[in-house]
Design a protein that fits this description.
The protein is of the alpha/beta class and 256 residues long. It has helices at 4-19, 25-30, 54-59, 66-77, 103-120, 130-137, 143-146, 168-171, 175-185, 188-193, 216-222; strands at 38-39, 45-49, 86-89, 124-128, 151-155, 158-165. It contains 11 helices and 6 strands.
Length: 256
């Protein structure tokens, strides 16, 4: 078993690989910088959102806009703060115009997320919104159907307690959605109090990234949610765009 120091060094290598990634030509051409993720590299709790927005693209850090402020508020209400958790996204680059991620982009980028999950070793993973939930569950069920429902899932080589939540952006302007999100957040401390789920036996041959049928996540993302009201995950744009911030280093991302 790798030591915490070894895991951090490996995580820094993944960060450097992601920072120079050009697998998605459009995203590589239009991004300001890669948004790898940030927080506690030994966190028991990890959040996975959709993709960076304009503020995140400018700062190089996840959830630094209005949705991020709401996330911090909700964490505070359950006795946690950002330094206690690790926050990442399905995509590490901002889609132009805050459009939805394309299936090919998710396919290109998921290796980075799976390595983050493997190296950080969270016991609880909260997916924020439809894209993260469908990807990590490998199932077409939308967030309206599964939010607040804990389940143990094997993701890559790790078994985690997966806990789908609405994306905070969906609750920014809808009081009803905010109360649902707040109620679901209230269940997180009980999940963290539970022991880690038993881990699968590691074998040498390649394993599927997600415990699902091959390419099931593609169908999950493409399938329409019949009878499910639309939930916006749009990340608000800054009112006055400014120049890019300094690219964050490993220390700012919690990888030291």
């Amino acid at each position: 078993m790798a030591t915490p120091e070894q895991r951090r060094e490996d995580l820094k290598l993944v960060f450097e690989q992601a920072r120079g990634c050009v697998r998605c030509s459009e995203l590589a051409a239009t991004r300001t910088q890669v948004v790898f993720g940030a927080g506690n590299a030994d966190a028991d709790l990890m959040f996975v959102g959709e993709a960076p927005g304009a503020n995140e693209d400018r700062m190089g850090l996840p959830f630094v806009g209005q949705a991020g402020k709401l996330l911090e508020q909700l964490l505070g209400e359950i006795g946690l703060n950002r330094k206690d958790v690790f926050i990442a996204n399905v995509l590490k680059c901002r889609p132009p115009g805050n459009r939805d991620p394309h299936p090919g982009e998710i396919e290109h980028c998921q290796e980075y997320l799976m390595r983050q999950l493997e190296l950080i070793e969270p016991r609880v993973v909260c997916t924020l919104g439809n894209f993260a939930t469908k990807l990590l569950r490998g199932d077409p069920a939308g967030i309206t159907r599964v939010h607040g429902q804990e389940e143990v899932r094997v993701i890559g080589r790790r078994a985690v307690r997966l806990y789908p939540l609405y994306h905070p952006a969906a609750a920014l302007y809808t009081p009803r959605m905010l109360e649902v999100l707040r109620a679901d957040f209230a269940g997180i401390p009980a999940l963290l109090a539970q022991p880690a789920p038993p881990q699968p036996q590691i074998v040498e041959e390649a394993e599927p990234l997600v415990e699902a049928e091959p390419e099931a996540w593609r169908d999950a993302l493409a399938e329409a949610e019949v009878g499910e009201p639309p939930v916006s995950e749009e990340r608000p744009e800054p009112e006055e765009p400014t120049g890019p911030g300094e690219p964050p280093g490993p220390e700012q991302l919690g990888l030291f």
